[in-house]
Amino acid sequence: MPPTDPRGPGPHRFDLIVRSRRAVLPDGERPLAVAVRDGVIAALLPYEAEAAAAETVDLGEVCLLPGLVDSHVHVNEPGRTHWEGFATATRAAAAGGVTTIVDMPLNSLPPTVDVPALAAKRAAAAGQCAVDVAFWGGAIPGNAGELRPLHEAGVRGFKCFLSPSGVEEFPPLDADGLRAAMRAVAAFGGLVVVHAEDPALLTDPAGPTYAQFLDSRPGEAERRAVERVIAAARETGARAHILHVSSASCLEPLEAARREGVAVSAETCPHYLTITAEQVRGPEFKCCPPIRDAGNRDRLWEGLAAGVLSCVVSDHSPSTADLKVPDFAAAWGGVSSLQVGLPAVWTEARARGHGLDRVTGWMSRGPAALAGLPAKGRLAVGADADLVAFDDTAEFTVQAGALRHRNPLTPYHGRTLTGVVQATWLRGRPVTDAEPPFGALL
C-alpha cells in the first residue's frame, strides 16, 4: 500500500474520522475526533487534531453517541415473521441509533430452546440484518439439559417466565423449575433473565377496559416474583436479571439484594418511563407487565438514578393489527418502540435533569455489559466503531406509518419527541438503505 494512502499503517492513518464538539462519554461530553480503522475505534483524538483518513465527517454541535444496545427485542422470525422479522426490525433499530440487538427466544417458531432451534433462527437471520444481532436462549420446563449446549453455541443467557408467556410453546417455570434452571446455568457461569410476575396474584380482567386490565396485574405480583428470583439466586449462586420492571415496588427488594451482594440486576423500558396509565388510549399501549400510574413512573426514574435499575431497553414486542383488538382483556400484549426508544427516553430524561451520559449508560453500556458484549456500547479505543449522530434539540412528531418496523402500531403515534438520529455507523460503515445489510450474527 503506498505510504500516501490514508488507510496505510501509522498512528494517524485511518479509514474514518468522525468529529463532534459533543462526544458523549461516561463522565460527560467533550470535543473529540473518533478515529476508526478496520471497524474498530483506533484512537480518540482532540477534536481539531490533524489526522489522515479516507473519510472525515464533522458533526459540529451534533452529539456523537456510542451505538445503543437493545438487549430485549422480539424479532419473531422464523414462524411469526408477519409480526416482525430481522430485515424490518434491524432497519428500525438502525434508524433509532441501535447498533446491536439481542433477540428474545419466544414468539418465533420454533422457540430458541435447543441448539437446532438456534441454528434455525441464525439461518433465518443470515444476510438480512442491518445491525449486529445476538441471541437469548430459553429456559422452559424439561429443557435444563439443553442449556449448556445452547451456552456453548453462543446464546447470551436464558429467558424464562414465571407466569404464562402468551404462547403455548414457551411455558413458564414453577418454583422448582426456576431453581433447577438456575442451578444448571450457575454451573457454567451463565445468566438467567426473568419475566417476573407471580401467577398466583394474576387474574383474568373483569372487563374490557384498561383499568380492569391494570387491576388484573398488580404491582405486588411483580414484587413477589422478584423476591422469588432473588431467593433462588442466593440459593443457587446463579446470576439473574429481572426483565421490564414496571412496578416501583420491586426497587426495595432489588436494592436490598444488591447491598447483600446477590447477583441480581434489573431493567426497565421506555414506555414505563415516559407513559402513564392515565395516558393510555388504545390497545397499542397494552403490555405485560402493564404501564402504571404517574407516581410509579417517578419512582422508577429514582431507581434508575440510584443505579437499582441498570438498563433501559425496548421490549419491542410487535404483532399484527388484528391482534390489537379494542378489548384490553383480549388484545395482544406488546409495545412497538424499537425505533423511538432513544428520543422517548431522552425527552423525559432531559426534562428531569439527566444528561446524555446517563442515557447512554442506561441504553448502551448497561445492556452491553448485561449481554456480555464488551466491544459494544462505548466510545473507547478497541471498541467496535458503532456510532450515532444525534441532534439532541431537534423535535419531531411520531407517525406510526413512517417507522421501519413491520406493522404500523405504536403508543408513541402522534407524540412529539426531542432528539433525532441523523446517522448511524456500524463498525465504521454507515447504515443506509443504499447498501445491502451487513450486520453480523454475534
UniProtKB/TrEMBL annotation:
What sections of the sequence does the record tag as coiled-coil?
Answer: none
Domain of life the protein comes from: Bacteria
> Which is a Pfam family this sequence falls into?
Amidohydro_1
Segments passing through the bilayer: none
Q: Write the Enzyme Commission number(s) for this entry.
A: 3.5.2.5
**A GO term, aspect molecular function:** allantoinase activity
Question: What are the residue boundaries of the Amidohydrolase-related domain, all occurrences included?
Answer: 64-431
Pathway(s): Nitrogen metabolism; (S)-allantoin degradation; allantoate from (S)-allantoin: step 1/1
| Signal peptide positions on this chain | none
UniProt keyword annotations, A-Z: Hydrolase, Metal-binding, Zinc
Q: Keyword Hydrolase, does the record have it?
A: yes
Q: Which cofactor does it need?
A: Zn(2+)
Q: Outline what the protein does.
A: Catalyzes the reversible cyclization of carbamoyl aspartate to dihydroorotate.
Q: What does the subunit section of this Swiss-Prot or TrEMBL entry state?
A: Homotetramer.
Q: To which protein family does this belong? A: Belongs to the metallo-dependent hydrolases superfamily. DHOase family. Class I DHOase subfamily.
| Protein name per its UniProtKB record | allantoinase
Origin species, per record, is Sphaerisporangium rhizosphaerae
